[in-house]
Amino acid sequence: MQIFDRVDPMNLERREWQLWLLAFTVISVLALGTALLKYPTVFSTPVFLAGATTRKAFFGFCALVVLLLGYFVDRQLVVRHLRQQVVHEQETIMRIRYEASADLLSTLPDFAHFQDRLAMEYRRASSTRQPFASCSLRLRRRTPSRSPAG
């Protein structure tokens, strides 16, 4: 059963939409089939209950089916809206992090100041005959990548 357990994250949205569509279709078909099976009983001569009671029950059933399908559609729209909101908030967080990193990097002293400081430390170490070690890092600015869902 590992065939059905492998889910590509890029197809997750499409697969969820297919699942919702399948559920909506199955519920619609089952409800329509039940209504069609009840229809002759409701509108024929009453055997057990009075005609008005069975008609009310039939139309109540049809109304409940419509309400259930409407509820499923509403839930799908709410979930879709919430996912779009989460994606938007993630993009906002990424942009804020990028801006904060860029601000932090802009507060660092420039390269000329670093060279002056390095020369001074080297002279101090050589005059006191202490070992001198330095570590240099190169930082590159990178633009934040946009997600394909946006």
Topology:
Elements: H1 2-5, H2 12-43, H3 51-107, H4 111-127
Structural description of this entry:
- This protein is mainly α and 150 residues long.
- The protein has one domain (9-127).
- The chain contains four helices and no strands.
- The protein has helices at residues 2-5, 12-43, 51-107, 111-127.
- Helix 2 (12-43) runs antiparallel to helix 3 (51-107).
- It is rod-shaped and about 115 Å long.
- The model has no long low-confidence stretch (mean pLDDT 78).
The SS-based structural class is mainly alpha
> What number of domains?
1
Helix and strand pattern: HHHH
Q: How many E-type strands?
A: 0
User: Helical stretch count?
Assistant: 4
Biggest β-sheet description = none
Globular, elongated, flat, extended or rod-shaped: what is the shape? Answer: rod-shaped
N-C termini distance: 34 Å
